[in-house]
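Lab manual, section 2.4: Encoding a predicted structure.

Procedure: take the sequence of the chain (87 residues), apply the prediction step described in section 2.3, and record the output as structure tokens. A sample record is shown.
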Amino acid sequence: MIEKVSGCIKYVDVTFGGFLGSSGVHHYTIPWTKLAYDREFGGYRTDISEARVRGAPTSHGDEEIWHDREREKQMQRYWDDGPRGPI
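Recorded output:
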């Protein structure tokens, strides 16, 4: 999700579940600031535990959530003061 006014990346959508495009895929939205690019690894790393990601607000791939201000507030509340879990 890119913030319209600043143009800054706010959240990244990651998916778990499903198989070859089948149903059951859940989208988890995590803060962009929680990712760090690792040149040696050739990808992004995070200190967020799997349990914390799986506890985050989810949606199914066919849902349109990006224009929903209440949904954005829910994500912000979760990541700002949600359960911390192991890192």
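Check your result against the sample. Residues 27 and 63 are 10 Å apart (CA to CA).
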